[in-house]
Write a structure and sequence with these properties.
Radius of gyration: 20 Å
Number of strands: 14
Structural class: alpha/beta
Largest sheet: 10 strands, mixed
Low-confidence stretches: none
Mean pLDDT: 96
Length: 425
């Protein structure tokens, strides 16, 4: 099919997060300003400098049959759970190619998946190495390689829905989930697919990643007060809190969605991309790369900054990163930044690394759909350098009439910058 420039819409959402086992409970938790951070129990975490994390509210073992779960890394388990919810939410009851009486059907060759992970099956890799050392070669699981592959979540979701247009896995650290959604948009716009299941997943709550992040001085060590440890924009912020889970959306061409009478949450305007070329782990302090991604977004989409009412910020709760992002926003948007309600939902979910862009896209879509912005919690003393309208403490109602647009920002180690834009329909 020749390249096109088709309108892309969101028709389904799914999530499993530290706030809830589905998108509804996650959204409820976000609006309530509830923290999903808790102490890490168990001897293996006892000696770590960081002993808190935002663990999944519902363990995958409570949802997936044991024979299936034992063949999947935890990151793939989360992805499959979120994808199943999103698929059903979009009105699909069976895999592609299945005859239905509802008309909610799609040709497998017109369906793709793009599910990202920043780290992939790290817990499988580390746990199976322990098995090798402690129990010997014969006890290593034969499923280890498919489980630890970073493309495992996307491949398993693709198998679930019978996707044949392409199964992809962008890996760009903490920008991975957002980049996956942007890639999915391009698949539809260029005519390669009509429907794409896209998002991000992560499951890295394990002593080694936590020790490594802690030794980089990237994580909060506020072990005594877990629920207040993730505090974007607060003067006392001291690093991010690791989270786990997945967020997935079903994207469709507007024509395909209309033909089957699908409910549409919003339109996806497009993405902006850039790279810092500054440092492998530190953000560029002036926000130069972030500004380039935002400008690229505006140039690619024709988005009018005057129409922007909401932004879900990357805002991980690190001293440098939070302010660099806002400097970039001010540089590109100027005075228009003043009418944008900014939410930092990592204050509640923690930082899901490659899964962050997925669940924050779900949050951004729901904010537009319900016309309400979730709060940022744990801001007791706002940083003097924060020159923007942060939604603090309580949800903020967005305008009830007219078209509204919103942005979701995601940035990652290596200098990856991704901005996604959405608009009401």
């Amino acid at each position: 099919m020749s390249p096109t420039n088709r309108t892309v819409v969101v028709t389904g959402i799914g999530a499993t997060t530290p706030l809830g086992g589905d998108s509804a409970s996650t959204w409820e938790g976000l609006l309530a300003g509830r923290s999903g951070v808790s102490p890490l129990e168990g001897e293996r975490f006892a000696e770590l400098p960081v002993r808190i994390a935002a663990q999944a509210a519902v363990d995958p073992s409570e949802v997936l049959p044991r024979p299936l779960a034992r063949k999947l890394d935890r990151s793939a388990q989360f992805a499959l759970i979120a994808a199943r919810e999103a698929w059903a939410d979009a009105g699909y009851t069976d895999p592609a190619g299945t005859e239905t009486t509802t008309g909610a059907s799609i040709v497998p060759e017109r369906l793709g998946t793009v599910i990202a992970s920043g780290i992939g099956g790290v817990t499988t890799l580390l746990d199976q190495y322990d098995v090798l050392k402690e129990k010997g070669v014969r006890r290593v699981s034969p499923h280890t390689v498919p489980m630890l592959m970073p493309n495992g979540p996307s491949a398993n979701v693709g198998l679930e829905v019978n996707a044949r247009a392409g199964v992809h896995t962008p890996v760009s650290a903490c920008a991975s989930g957002a980049e996956a959604i942007g890639y999915a948009v391009e698949m539809i716009r260029t005519g390669r697919a009509d429907v794409v299941v896209a998002g991000g997943t992560e499951a890295a709550i394990h002593p080694l990643p936590i020790a490594a992040f802690a030794n980089m001085m990237a994580m909060s060590k506020n072990n005594e007060n877990p629920t207040s440890a993730s505090r974007p924009y607060d003067k006392a912020r001291d690093g991010f809190v690791l989270g786990e889970g997945a967020g997935v959306v079903v994207l469709e061409s507007a024509e395909h969605a209309a033909a089957r009478g699908a409910r549409v949450y919003c339109e996806v305007l497009g993405q902006g991309l850039s790279a810092d070329s500054h440092h492998i782990a530190q953000p560029e302090p002036t926000g130069r790369g972030v500004a380039a991604a935002l400008q690229n977004l505006l140039d690619n989409t024709g988005l009018d900054p005057a129409e922007l009412v909401h932004l879900n910020a990357h805002a991980t709760s690190t001293p440098q990163g939070d302010t660099a992002e806002l400097k970039a926003l001010r540089k590109v948007l100027g005075d228009d930044l003043d009418h944008i309600a900014i939410s930092a939902t990592k204050s509640m979910t923690g930082h899901l690394l490659g899964g962050a862009g997925g669940i924050e896209t779900v949050a951004t879509v729901l904010a537009l759909y319900h016309r309400i912005a979730p709060p940022t919690i744990n801001i007791d003393d706002l940083d003097d350098d924060i020159d923007a309208d942060i939604v603090v403490g309580e949800p903020r109602k967005l305008p009830v009439e007219g078209p509204l647009s919103a942005i979701n920002n995601s940035f990652g180690f290596g200098g990856h910058n991704v901005s996604l834009a959405f608009r009401t329909v």
